[in-house]
Every structure is written in C-alpha cells, then in structure tokens.
Amino acid sequence: MAESPARTAFAEEALTHLDTLYRGALRLTRDPDQAQDLVQEAYLRALRYQHSYQTGTNMKAWLFAIMRNLFWDRFKGTRKEDVSLDDVGDFVLFEKLRDEGARPEADVLDRIAASEVVSAVEKLPPLHREVVLLVDVEGFSYKDAAQALGVPIGTVMSRLHRARQQLQRSLYEYAVESGIVRGSTNGATPQ
Amino acid sequence: MNCPDCKDKLDRFVDRELNNTEVLELQLHLEGCPECSDQYEFQAHLKRLVKHSCDCDAAPAAFREKLRQILT
Ligand SMILES: [Zn+2]
Ligand SMILES: [Zn+2]
Asked: Fewest beta carbons within 10 Å, which of A108, A119, A121, A191?
C-alpha cells in the first residue's frame, strides 16, 4: 500500500517512542504477546486519529494515552477495588530499616534484585502501576503523566504516593523473606 | 522549613517538580538535617532502583520491523 509522505513521517516519529509504549504495555499486561498486540493496536489507532494530535505537544504522552485507554477498555466491568489501592497507611520502608539499625538505609536497596523490583511493580493495581511507569520509569513530569492518564495532577501525586508506599511494603516483605533484613521483632511484619 | 514540611515535599523534590525557591529552601533544610537527608537519599535511590529495574526491556527488533512494515 502506498502511503502518503506525511503519514510515513508521522509513523516514523511515533515509532521513536516504541520502547516506552512496549515497556508500558508489558508491565500493564504482564505478557509479551499481549503487549505486542496492544502496542500494534495502539499504533494503528494513532495513525487513524493522526489529525487529533496537535503538533508541538507531547507525542509520547499522546501515544501512551491511546495505549493505556485500549488496555483499560479490556478492563471494563472490573470492580474498582481490584484495580485501585486502598490507603495502605504510611508504610515507610526507610523507617522500618532505621528501626532495625540497617544503616545507611539506602544500602539495603542495593541488595534487592531487579527482578524482585519488577514483580513488586507488577503487583501494584494497574491504576497505580501506570503512574509509576510514567513518572519513575519513563521520567514523565506530573503534567505529562496527567495528560497521558486523563486525570488532574493532584490525582497523579496521590496515586504515586500510594504506589510508593505499597512498593516499599512489598520490597520490605521480600527483604525479610530473603534474609536481607531481620524483620520486625514485634510481630508486625505484614504478610 | 521544618521536618514535616520537608517530608511533605520530598516526593516532588525527587520528581523534580518543585520550583526554584522551593528547591533552595528544601536543600537548605537537608544540609542541616541528617534525618531528612537520609530519607531523601533513600527515596531518590528507590526511584533509581525502580527505573533501572524496569527500563531495560526494549521492544524486540522483529516486532519493531513488523510495525514499520505495517505503518509506513
Ligand atoms: Zn528534617
Ligand atoms: Zn541504580
């Protein structure tokens, strides 16, 4: 099929963001085949709605929005509780480690395997997972993340905060199980 | 700035979302407060750990080529 030069140029530019979209899709679906399907569908849709992209705005955020909206379409009917995170309270890994005399606290992080971090991220409910992917992994500003997710900046911040609390909780559990830290002596270790 | 204010702004600090004035105020507090400074180090390290752990997956070359065929 002979494509117009404008369409080809647009597609080429869109493809420079492929890694970001693929990583996002992979973490959201947790399956490489589904991730490829989702990304391919997102790109086809992006080209179809090329006219709705405003030149000069953040194309990466625009593409991510298309991909995650497709992902969420498949989640329609899922109960909100399953995709969102209750306020887990302030769980601060840093303070746990401090209480246990692990100094400096940040050194403990160096002993946590990357694969454990990935699985802790994948365990986050998707609404929180996607904020971590955008802000921490892809380096989006709150404003761009808000655009990609279609929510106010305040929502980005609160989801991110809860996600980080939950992430610390998971990493702490792993650190205790694997003997990196000793674990609470007062029996308060979350299970 | 006191410690609760500092902790409140730490997320935005590690995410580079504070304005210049706020950054200066926060840095000044961190220089004089080992507790907050340790906490900052920890949060910044955690953010880097999440990034490095998750950002190594690139789209497979064959998939990239397939998309290029379909789209261009
Ligand atoms: Zn302080
Ligand atoms: Zn690192």
From this structure: A191
